[in-house]
Amino acid sequence: MTTFRDSDLDRPGEAPGSAGRVLVAKIGLDGHDVGAKYVARLLRDSGFEVVYLGIRQRVEAVVRAAIDENVDIVGLSILSGSHVALVERVCALLAEEDDDPPPVVVGGVIPPEDHQALKELGVRAIFNAGTSPEQMVDVMRRLVIDPDAVAAGEP
User: Could you give the CA distance from residue 53 to residue 21 in angstroms, rounded to a whole number?
Assistant: First the structure.
């Protein structure tokens, strides 16, 4: 597990320090991590504290880290096509382990026809290719403030 921290970041209009804690992980056998690393760096450079778990994580390890690290958001990068089943397990285990689980966001290759199923599982945002960095950071900041602020399919 790697934690990226930029606590000296000071932006006009914002309090110095972290914009929130985000866990970024890849679940299952998906070994392509370029996008997840890009998102981790983007969030870190935008003032978030990022806990990056890396590739080939088990659902149980991701949930345990989310709880142990007391993150504000769980970000899952999935390119394997098994996003609905994996997200279902993450959301169920988070709810079982935590009375107030952090919101889950998903990035990767997520077909539009799966967005509704992910929303019904509790996913707050889906970031497909083409989501601008600014839009992603904005959504993440809103989720830290209000975990129910964003619904799947947005942005």
Answer: 13
